[in-house]
Amino acid sequence: MKYHLRCALALGVLLAALILPADAAGRVNLTPDNGYTADYGIELPFTPSPRTADYTFEVFRGENTSQPPLVRAQASLSGGVTQTLYLPLAFDLEHAERYTIRVTAQPDARRAGLDTEDSRTFPYTTQYCGGRHTEAQGGYLLGDGSAGNPYVIQNAKQLSHVREHPGSYFRQNVDIDLSSWGNWTPIDADGINYDGCGHYVWNLTSTGHSSGNALFGNLTNSTLRRFGVNTFTCTGGEYDAGLIRAASNVTLDQCLAANGTTRANVCSGGLFATAVGVTVRDSFSSSCSIYAKTANAGGLSGNFTGSLARCYAINTVAGEDSLGGISGHGTYASAFQNVYWETGRGAGSAVQEWWSSDSPSSVIWNYNPPGTFAKPAAEMTVQSTYQGFAFANVTGPYNPAKPWVWEPNQNHPLLHIFYRPEELG
Ligand SMILES: [Zn+2]
User: What SS3 state is found at 333?
Assistant: First the structure.
C-alpha cells in the first residue's frame, strides 16, 4: 500500500522514452535512481510535452537546488495527456515542510541540436488535511482518510483530531504518550475505521467529564483494530472506561485496555462502560481497578450486549451492585466464545444482572453465559487455559490469523502485533 499527498503541479512539458508500470489507479510509480526509498510519497500531476519523452524529477529540501537532491528519478513519459506520477518522499508527518521540485526535460534524440535541455522548478509545501486544517488543530499531513490512503496519526494532537473527521480511515504510526496532555476529552466519532497498527496510547488521564471518561466517548458504527490503551485514569463520570465510554455497532479486533483505574457513578469497565451491538475479537483488559458506585462494574464492560470471541479479563471490580467478571449487566442478545475471566477479584459471576429477554422481569442474577469461563489466577497464568486462542511465535512474522503470543515472562496472553508494530518508514 502506498500513501500519498496530492501535489498541485501544473506542468506542460515533454515526452517519454520509458513508460513506467502504472498501478491499478493508472498512477505511474517513479523509482529513484539515487538509492532513495520511503514507504510513502507524493503525487504529481504531469503532462508530458509532445516534443520529448525523457524527464528527470528531483526533490530538494527547502529552496536550495544547488545541494544534491533528496530524491532523483528518471522517467520516459509519452502520450501528451496528464498523468499522475508518484515519487517516494518521507516528509515529516507532524510539521509541514517546504520542498522544491525540479523537472528537467531532455531533448528527443531526433531533435538533438534543435531542442535543448530545459528545467522548471516548483515550490511544494506539505499541507494539513489537504489545506483544510492547521497544525494547531492537529491536522494530518499524510493520507486523505480513504480506505486505501488513511490519515496517519503521529502525535497526540492528531489523535485528538480524529473527532473532526467522521467517516474516515486512520492509522496510528507510533506509540503516543499523553502524560503531558492534561485532561483528555473523550473522542466522539461516527463511522471511523481506526488501525492502531500495534501501537499504544500511554498515560491517558480523562477525568470529570460528567457524561463519562475514556479515550473514546460516544463511538458508533466504527471499527478499532490493533489498538491499546496502556496505563490510564478515567474517573468522575457517569460512565468511565479505558477505551470507549459508549459503543454502539462497534467492532474491536486485537485491542486492549491495561493498567488502569476507572471510577464511575453508573457503568464502568476495562474496554467499555456501556456497549450495545458490539463485536469483539481477540481482545482483553488486565491489571485494572474498575469501580462503579451504584451499579454495573465489569472486567470488560459495565453494560454489554454483543459478541465476544477469544477475549479475557483480569481486573478487579467493585461497587454497590451488579459486578461481573465480564460485564456487570448484560442481555440475551449476546454471544460468547472462549471468554475467560479471573475469579477472586470482586465478581461472583461473568454477568451479575442478566436480562434473558427485553422484560425487566426476566432478570437472571449471577449468570454465567455459555462460552464464558471463570478461572482462578492459578489457571489464568497457564497458556492451555485459553482454548481457541491462536498463538504465534513471538519472534516470527505477524500473522493476523494467529494474533496471540505467550511470553514465558508474562502470565497471560498478549497480542503479537504489539511486538511487531507496523510503521511507515
Ligand atoms: Zn483535519
Answer: coil
Q: Are 273 and 267 in contact (CB under 8 A)?
A: yes
Task: Tell how far the Cα of 147 is from the centroid of ligand 1, in angstroms.
Answer: 16
**Cα three-residue angle 385-308-419, rounded to 5 degrees:** 65
* The pLDDT value given to residue 148: 87
359: buried, middle or exposed (CB in 10 Å: 19+, 13-18, 0-12)? exposed
Mean pLDDT of 129-135: 93
Region of 144 (left: φ > 0; alpha: ψ -120 to 50; beta: rest) is alpha
Please, what are the domains in the chain? Answer: 3-126 (2.60.40), 174-384 (2.160.20.110)
Residue 156 C-alpha to ligand 1 middle, in angstroms? 14
How far is ligand 1, taken at its centre, from the CA of residue 90, in Å?
A: 20
Strand order across the beta sheet in which 28-29 lies = 3-6, 40-46, 83-88, 28-29
Which grid cell is 225?
A: 483494530
- Percent helix, strand, coil in the chain (nearest 5)? 5, 50, 45
How many angstroms separate the alpha carbon of residue 129 from the centre of ligand 1? Answer: 5
Q: What is the mean pLDDT of residues 404-420?
A: 94
CA of 363 from ligand 1 middle (Å) equals 46
Long-range pairs, 380-384, Cβ under 8 A, ≥24:
380/312, 380/314, 380/340, 380/342, 380/411, 380/412, 381/411, 381/412, 383/413
Q: How far is residue 412's CA from residue 312's CA, in Å, rounded to a whole number?
A: 9
Query: How many Å lie between the centroid of ligand 1 and the Cα of residue 152?
Result: 11
Nearest Cα neighbor of 126 from 142, 115, 149 is 142
> What nine digits make up the cell of 184?
483528555
Express each pLDDT in 271-320 by its tens digit.
999 999 999 999 999 999 999 999 999 999 999 999 999 999 999 999 99
Measured distance CA(115)–CA(105) in Å, rounded: 10
Q: Are 301 and 290 in contact (CB under 8 A)?
A: no
Give tens-digit pLDDT for 339-397: 999 999 999 999 999 999 988 889 999 999 999 999 999 999 999 999 999 999 999 99
Report which of 329, 335, 318, 337 is spatially closest to residue 362, judged by C-alpha positions.
329
Ligand 1 center from residue 171 Cα (angstroms): 14
DSSP for 43-57?
EEEEB--TT-BEEEE
